[in-house]
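Q: Is it fine to ask for two folds in a single conversation?
A: Yes, each is treated on its own. Send the first.
Q: Here.
A: Result:
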Amino acid sequence: MSTYKEKKVITIGIVSELTGLSERRIRYYEERKLIFPDRSKGGTRKYSFTDIEKLMNIANHMEDGLQTYEIRKIQEKEEKEVRDQMIRGQLNAHFNMRK
């Protein structure tokens, strides 16, 4: 069950207004596999609040001079760390393990 932050219901125009990023820049981040919006039946991109946070992090990394492939590596590392934490938590809960 997803939270309101994860529901992909926000259009690219609203995302652009909220973030200050141009629609072209947002689509570029999608092309570079940094963001993954859903699509409506009509093909409209739909974003979540979590996506908006991710876009702001991407923009900050770009301002710091990072390349898109470097940002993707950072995202992959962060996602792996979250997955690893979740797995450890599930194992601890299942086997009643404590640190």
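Q: Second one now.
A: Result:
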Amino acid sequence: MEVYKRIIKISLPIALQQVIFTSVNFVDTLMIGALGEVAIAAVGLSNQVFFLYNLILFGLVSGGGIFFAQYWGKQEEEGLSRSVALTIISALFFSIPFFVLSFFYPNLVLNFFSPDIEVINLGAVYLKIIALSFPLFAISLVTSFMLRSIKKVHIPLIITIIELSSNIFLNYLLIFGKLGFPTLGVKGAAIATLIARLIGCISSVLIVYLRKMPGRIYFRHFREITPKFFKSYFHYAIPTMANEFAWSLGVTMYSIVYAHMGTNVIAAQRVMATIEGFATSITFSIANAASVIIGNMLGTSRYEEAYDVSKKALKLAELISIFAAIICIIITFFIVELFDVSEEVKKMVRITITISMSFLPIKLFNGMNVVGFLRAGGDTRFSFIVEGSTLWFIGVPLSAIGGLVLNLSFPVVYLLTMTEEVIKSIILYFRYKSKKWLNNVLE
């Protein structure tokens, strides 16, 4: 029972943080939806670029998170700060190409996602502005992971509330021109996002330093990054980055397929992803909590205890996923009516959400293994190989054949992509049972 309490204590604030984030995305999409399907599609495609950037960055930072959790398990604050310093440098470095492409060549970037010129031109306005927030987001993400690793999960929750409530308020002012502000539409939504991320970044850094929390960095920590530590760090971080890059690029390929199926399909996918986020945010928070707890244990070589915790976390996650899936399917039939889209788009959303939620327990099992267990133990190369191969050799080809060759409907094409999740779960089950992922990366 004690294990379940520890998991819930860490996962609940993470889940609330993600639910708030998803709620704001929902409101954001709802506000932009008032401008029509082209606006939804334009912002949706622009956010695909951010999605790609976010996941690669997530891979890098979660690679650093392996060291955060295990160093904190050993109570080595200097090692924790040194890991944070290297992660921040790396995160900012990898932000450069995304910033350059998105800020200076937004039309060229979006041209890869959609053939619709109207959508590209409107999306370029949005993408160019939010590109300025990429470095800010990198610093915020590293800080959030560090705070989770030392079990201060309530602080990222508070910062998320501040940041995203600011985003909603600024959206209201700038999209629709309220309280004397100009009516900027999609451009206003981008400016609101930029300002909100600036607020979030400054808030996270100030809290860590003013409260003198573990993990804060100074110049000496950058000097203490030895070639040996650098090599050890990237031995685990590069596969997690490659994993997220392969996965995010594959998901981006899905979006490109959907975009070529029509603007209404882009709008349906955008609305569906926003609603789906509520269920996934609650369930996948358990994977993040498990990663922290198990990482702390592996840092002190408590292997059997870590495996026992993983089994209990998996049972809890699967139970919650079933309830979350049922609730999400039910509320979708009502929520979709709030969007200013055609009946055809609403119908596609209802059907596809039902398909997605039917596979949620399988998707969560995969997420628990890749993000929660294998990554906590530094088994990052195996998870990269499994995720990359199943997505690119099964999921992407099936979506391309179904959507572009056979001209199947959006729900049917989405169903085809779930084949990848099923096969992946079988492979990960055997890896999990082998216990080869139970490693102390600091040794």
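Q: Anything structural to flag on that second result?
A: Two points. The CA atoms of residues 272 and 433 lie 34 Å apart. DSSP finds 16 helices and no strands in the chain.
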